[in-house]
Amino acid sequence: MEEPRARERYGLGALEVTAPETTQSTCETFPLCSFGYNRDVETQDFTKERIALNQARFREANERIELAADRMGLMGTIPFICECSEPSCVEIVQMKLEDYEELRHDPRLFFCAPGHEQIAVEAGAGVVEGRHRGYVLVEKIGVAGEIAAADYEAQNERA
Are the beta carbons of 15 and 143 closer than 8 angstroms? Predict the structure, then answer.
């Protein structure tokens, strides 16, 4: 199911829809995940818009974590929530606050636990930008990138 309201909200116009390739993934897709991936996940269930919006919600939560860590003057690694496409993921990604702040300069960049990038990549919503110790950077592309950037701008306007 496409998310036409999201496209309207961000002024992105009509979407050209093509039949998605179905790739079935099992719990082996997320070997480092500590819970609940014992069900099949099909990438066709994740539209590019839905992927962008799911990851934007995780980004909003992580922004609040960053703000709290900054206010408390925490040093070292901070526990952030994986920003993968799976809406029920609660995997923790440890990252230095300065690394988190650096990646936030690009509204199309998201991080996730290793292996969790697969859904976005297979759906054509993202490409791996880099692999780091404990996390993978994924750049949203196409429609997903446009929505991620527009959502980030809207979030900053509300703040």
Answer: yes
* 133 belongs to a structural domain: yes
Q: What's the domain count of the chain?
A: 1
Q: Is residue 8 part of a domain?
A: no
pTM equals: 0.67
Q: What is the model's pLDDT at position 48?
A: 78
Q: Do residues 129 and 137 lie in contact, with contact meaning Cβ atoms separated by under 8 Å?
A: yes
Residue 24's pLDDT band (cuts 50, 70, 90): very low
Residue 48 domain flag: yes
Q: Are 69 and 78 in contact (CB under 8 A)?
A: yes
CB 111 within 8 A of CB 105: no
Mean per-residue pLDDT, 83-101: 91
Alpha-helix residue ranges (DSSP H) falling in the chain: 4-9, 48-72, 97-103, 118-122, 142-158
Please indicate, yes or no, if residue 134 is contained in any of the structural domains: yes
Q: Which helix (H) or strand (E) holds 139?
A: strand 135-140
Sheet containing strand 126-132, edge to edge, reads: 109-112, 135-140, 126-132
